[in-house]
């Protein structure tokens, strides 16, 4: 599956008293990676929600290797694990400028119909965009 990378500069407010990125901020970095992964294949969260589908996180896993610090430039690599069904799963690798792995992560999200609150299969237009992206590799 295709991987999308995005650079993020660590802001002062994202660090704790020890000068390292507060652990809770890594979920936001992964959200940025996931949103940009989808945007890169031609799907926006906004349009998905406007069509009545929301995508809440139902599982999140983080494995910390090394800390990121204020003003570091990190790269968030986001990879789709497999073709989505009712759920969509992403792996993440967060590295520093030297390419050292700082954090590994995984999220599982569910496609939910906003009217009923019930899980639904991945919309066809998203599957088509993923398939066309894979075909172009």
TrEMBL record:
Q: Which UniProt keywords apply?
A: Hydrolase
Q: Molecular function (GO) terms listed?
A: fatty acyl-CoA hydrolase activity
Q: Which CDD domains match?
A: 4HBT
Question: What Gene3D superfamilies does the record point to?
Answer: Hotdog Thioesterase (3.10.129.10)
Top-rank lineage group of the source organism: Bacteria
Q: Which PROSITE patterns match?
A: 4HBCOA_THIOESTERASE
Protein family per UniProt: Belongs to the 4-hydroxybenzoyl-CoA thioesterase family.
What PANTHER family is this protein classified in? 4-HYDROXYBENZOYL-COA THIOESTERASE FAMILY MEMBER, NOVEL THIOESTERASE SUPERFAMILY DOMAIN AND SAPOSIN A-TYPE DOMAIN CONTAINING PROTEIN (0610012H03RIK)
Q: What is this protein called?
A: Acyl-CoA thioesterase
């Amino acid at each position: 599956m295709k991987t999308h990378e995005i650079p993020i500069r660590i802001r002062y407010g994202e660090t704790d008293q020890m000068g390292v990125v507060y652990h809770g901020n890594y979920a936001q970095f992964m959200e940025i990676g996931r949103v940009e992964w989808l945007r890169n294949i031609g799907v926006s969260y906004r349009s998905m929600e406007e069509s009545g589908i929301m995508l809440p996180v139902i599982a999140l896993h983080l494995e910390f290797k090394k800390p990121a610090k204020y003003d570091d430039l990190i790269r968030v690599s986001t990879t789709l694990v497999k073709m989505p069904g009712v759920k969509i799963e992403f792996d993440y690798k967060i590295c520093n400028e030297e390419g050292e792995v700082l954090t590994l992560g995984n999220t599982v999200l569910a496609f939910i119909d906003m009217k009923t609150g019930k899980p639904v299969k991945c919309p066809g237009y998203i599957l088509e965009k993923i398939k066309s992206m894979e075909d172009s590799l």
